[in-house]
Backbone:
């Protein structure tokens, strides 16, 4: 299984994303970290280029609905809708179901236990992926 952890938008804080990336690596999952301040288009291209099974978006800026939609739309436009997308960060409870309706596989608000996140990434692996 290959995972891309991405920080879309202008948010410059990545401690949580790095903690999740380390937990996934410790669980034997291959993780690529995109770095800070990536555009949705850059994230889509990197996900396709790296042939990942899951994209994990770490969003603290409050723009989670817009950014998730743009990544999902970009993946669909590139015939890569089989790449699962999960979102974590400062996500208000009222937005969880809206994100899922957009096509987000799982949502991890602040404080989600790391073992729960690792299990969810394993569930989100795309069909036919190696892992």
Residues:
């Amino acid at each position: 299984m290959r995972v891309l952890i991405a920080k879309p938008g202008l948010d410059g804080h990545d401690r949580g994303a790095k903690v999740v990336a380390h937990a996934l690596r410790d669980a034997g999952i291959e993780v690529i970290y995109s770095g800070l301040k990536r555009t949705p288009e850059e994230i889509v291209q990197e996900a396709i280029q790296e042939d990942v099974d899951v994209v994990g978006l770490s969003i603290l800026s409050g723009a989670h609905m817009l950014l998730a939609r743009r990544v999902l739309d970009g993946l669909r436009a590139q015939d890569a809708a089989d790449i699962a997308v999960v979102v974590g960060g400062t996500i208000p409870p009222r937005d969880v179901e809206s994100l899922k309706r957009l096509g987000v596989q799982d949502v991890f608000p602040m404080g989600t236990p790391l073992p729960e996140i690792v299990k969810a990434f394993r569930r989100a692996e795309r069909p036919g992926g190696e892992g």
In short: The two ends are 4 Å apart (CA to CA). The domain at 2-124 is CATH 3.40.50.280 (Rossmann fold). The beta strands are 2-6, 30-33, 54-59, 84-89, 106-109. The CA atoms of residues 48 and 131 lie 17 Å apart.
